[in-house]
Structures are given as structure tokens and as C-alpha cells.
Q: What sequence folds into this?
């Protein structure tokens, strides 16, 4: 997930994908999320100090599961600084969203409750009506480490339950 300049995000994603593919070709295993974040943050930091290029105007949230089976969530700032979180927000109204998450988040939260908390957090700063057509919800499965985006009907079910 990103907040900021879209083309900058696409450049960083392309670099991260190439880095991950290179890692896979060399080691025949998936690049750990922590290493992916470190390399992406390093690229972003280099652009803050290099002449002739401007810094990336984007903040990232990177989620995944490392080989140890523990879910990870990282925030990467345009400066190249990165932070690990259990729950966080970026973008417009992120201060209120973080405060809301601090009150609602628990370490032993179930997936259903986590999705509801995410939707309630999003609703706090959302302009207009939230529908299954104007939001997306992504989930990283703890069982197999796969990322999937919920279908609009699944999102609508969660929205109906949250109201």
C-alpha cells in the first residue's frame, strides 16, 4: 500500500520485484520481507542524497510473512527510514487513524476482527460513502503466506457487518 506519488510507487515496486527475482534465482527461495524492506528503504535513502535526482515522494506499507511464520508489517518513509508495526496507517488523517488503532488493536486479534477494525479505521477519515466499489481489502494468509484481495462481495459483507 502506498500514499503519495503514484509513478514513484510503481518505480519502487518494479525495483523490489527485480530484487526479489534476483534473490530467488540465486538462493531458490523467496526473499524475506525484512530484507525486501531493507533493500527498498536503501534505494529510497540513496535518492535523498544523490545529485540530479529527486527523493521519492511516497510512503509505503509492506506486509508479508517471513520464513519463521510470523506476520510482518513495515512502514517505509520517503527518507528511507523504515519501522516495524503491529498496526499502522499512512496518508491523509493518519494521526487519527493511528490513535484509533492504538485503542482497538490487540495481539490476539482474529482475522474477522482485524478486517472490521481496519474498515472502521478507514471510515474515520473517509470522505464520502465507503462501498465495496471504492475500497479494497487485502489479506496475507498466515497458513501459506499468500496475499489475496477480497472480492467486492466479500468486502460488502464486511461493510454490512460493520454498520
A:
Amino acid at each position: 500500500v502506498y500514499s503519495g506519488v503514484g509513478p514513484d510507487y510503481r518505480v519502487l515496486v518494479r525495483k523490489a520485484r527485480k530484487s526479489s527475482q534476483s534473490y530467488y534465482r540465486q538462493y531458490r527461495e523467496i526473499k524475506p520481507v525484512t530484507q525486501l524492506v531493507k533493500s527498498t528503504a536503501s534505494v529510497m535513502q540513496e535518492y535523498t542524497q544523490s545529485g540530479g535526482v529527486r527523493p521519492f515522494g511516497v510512503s509505503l506499507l509492506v506486509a508479508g510473512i517471513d520464513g519463521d511464520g510470523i506476520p510482518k508489517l513495515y512502514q517505509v518513509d520517503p527518507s528511507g527510514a523504515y519501522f516495524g508495526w503491529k498496526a499502522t496507517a499512512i496518508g491523509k488523517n493518519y494521526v487519527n487513524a493511528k490513535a484509533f488503532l492504538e485503542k482497538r488493536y490487540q495481539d490476539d486479534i482474529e482475522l474477522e476482527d482485524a478486517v472490521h477494525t481496519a474498515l472502521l479505521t478507514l471510515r474515520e477519515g473517509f470522505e464520502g460513502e465507503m462501498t465495496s466499489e471504492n475500497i479494497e481489502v487485502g489479506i496475507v494468509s498466515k497458513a501459506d503466506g499468500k496475499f489475496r484481495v477480497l472480492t467486492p462481495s466479500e468486502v460488502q459483507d464486511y461493510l454490512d457487518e460493520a454498520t
